[in-house]
Amino acid sequence: MDTFFLLLLVAGLQIAAAASPGPNFILVSSFSTRESLRSALIATGGITLGIAIWSSLAVLGLGTLITSSPTMFHIVQYLGAFYLAWLGANMLISSFRNTKPDAESENVSGTSSPFLKGFLVNIGNPKTIAYYTSLFAVLIPPDAPLWLLAVVVFVDTFACGAWWVFVALLFGTAPVKRAFSKSRKLIDKLFGSVLIALGLKLALDKH
Question: In this predicted structure, what is the pLDDT of residue 27?
Fold first, then answer.
């Protein structure tokens, strides 16, 4: 496969996967609408770091160590599921409190930094390494040089980061923030419930 086409395909598949609604979307959009664009971009940095780690492990062939070890896989899986459910529960509980709009930022930030939240949400899903391992096994030649593996990781990570920066910028615009503020508690209930459901789904998924 032509190198340029390979990198273009990797970037396209990564953006398509990132565009699917999930916990990363909820986290970035929540930071943008409730706190600031800066907080959302910091969270994006944490998400992107998680992607860089998973994709690096996959291209180096280390992903099989996790996917082939039920104990290691399930530890990451259950910790990630608990964290998603914990985030969702906090958001859900906060939606029932009579807080002022400027005090609701704690729904998202809580006691940890945006970067850490973005990183933990992403690194806590071992299904990601299974996705990358299978994807790269199909796309990347087994005799690919090290420089090509490094470029694939860079392109994959950059595409992910670019997408979440776009989402942060979009939801940080004044019209979107105003629209969210009018239905903030309802959106908190929806997002919180979705995060809890995603946590339960992750916990119950069989490896």
Answer: 92
User: What residue ranges do the domains of the chain occupy?
Assistant: 3-8+23-204
Containing H/E element for 11?
Answer: helix 3-18
Q: Which two tokens stand for residue 204?
A: 């119950």
pLDDT over 50 (residue 107): no
- Overall average pLDDT of the 184-207 stretch: 83
The per-residue pLDDT for 44 is 95
Residue tagged 């807080």 (tokens): 99
Query: What are the start-end ranges of the H helices in 35-173?
Result: 37-59, 63-67, 70-95, 106-109, 114-123, 127-139, 146-171
Place of tokens 């090290």: 146
Residue by residue, DSSP assigns 95-135 as HTS---GGGTTHHHHTTS-HHHHHHHHHHT-THHHHHHHHH
Angstrom distances, CA of residue 198 to CA of 18, 20, 86, 136: 16, 13, 11, 25
